[in-house]
Amino acid sequence: GHQDRQSGGMFTAEFITADCTKVRIREKYQDASMKFDLCSCQFSFHYCFESLAQAKMMLKNACECLNLGGYFIGTTPNSLEIMKRLRSSENKSFGNDVYRVTYELDDLDTVPLFGAKYNFHLEGVVDCPEFLVYFPMLEKLAEDYGMKLLYRKSFAEFFSENAEKGEYRGLLNRMQGLETYPSDNLMGKVPEDYTETEQTYQEILAHDDRPEHVRQRGPPKVGTLSKSEWEATTIYCVFAFQKVSDKATGRTWKPHSQEGDT
After folding, report:
1. CA nearest 21: which of 131, 123, 170, 107?
2. Residue 252 falls within a domain, yes or no?
3. Residue 186, class by beta-carbon neighbours within 10 Å (0-12 exposed, 13-18 middle, 19+ buried)?
4. Which domain holds residue 194?
5. Who contacts 227 (Cβ-Cβ below 8 Å, separation ≥6)?
6. Is residue 134 within 8 Å of 115, Cβ to Cβ?
7. 184 inside domain
8. What is the pLDDT, as a whole number, of residue 209?
9. pLDDT recorded at residue 69
10. In the prediction, which pLDDT does 262 show?
11. Comparing C-alpha atoms, which of 150, 117, 149, 118 is closest to residue 136?
């Protein structure tokens, strides 16, 4: 409850430094029998697709300690979108002033399931090799750990479906995930970055039905990303798996079951 949160009794945490693609994390827990309801892996899962062994270890770490009915969620580069943009490029490279992807293998027509390396550069953040995730292979490997895919969606699709929902909209505001438009300090470096935003904004102004006392406070504001930033974010996809069976015990998960059934 609220008092528990104020007194610091909400939860405990352990912090472990390890390569999750090579080390079994369970062996480093203070209590190796711990179980979890959720595992979240954001913008890092794709590093395990350097090899089959690393992918298996990463999935073991993500899934083996989940309770039946527990979830494994993540965000990872969308290999389909990346390959689409690479094949549309002239020199196996695409991007803009925010990001750049450069494919490092010779043949775009024969892409290996593991070790499909590309270099990813994100302005001021990262410049390192990464690996394409062939999602049907990920889904197949996850089955070995009792995991069922609930959904996989492009970032653009997920954003379109959820950005206006209350809890997601509130989270975007708290995280300041979008910049305010219009503004004198926009992140984009060229006017073309905001062409579509400006068109939408003019439509909002033309149909401004806010109460008079609200309009007196000034023109409306909208949240947006520059075109360059949107192009960078839309190379990602989101996914969610659920643990529906425990291979060790033979128990299976059914909706509305607290313990799982055999």
Report:
1. 131
2. no
3. middle
4. 179-224
5. 188, 192, 193, 194, 195, 196
6. no
7. yes
8. 77
9. 96
10. 46
11. 149
Flag residues of the chain having pLDDT under 70.
1-9, 172, 175-184, 186-191, 193-194, 197-198, 200-201, 204-205, 219-225, 256-262
| Number of structural domains found in the chain | 1
Count of residues in the chain? 262
- Specify if 11 maps to a domain: no
Strand order in the sheet with 236-243: 36-42, 66-77, 236-243, 147-154
pTM of model > 0.85 = no
DSSP annotation of 31: S
**Which amino acid is residue 1, in one-letter code?**
G
Domain-embedded: residue 42: no
43 vs 59: CA distance, rounded Å: 15
Which residues are within 8 A (CB) of 104 and not within 5 positions of it... i.e. 6 or more apart? 117, 118, 119, 129
Which contacts (CB < 8 Å, 24+ apart) does range 134-139 have?
Answer: 134/49, 134/79, 135/79, 135/80, 135/237, 135/239, 137/55, 137/113, 138/49, 138/55
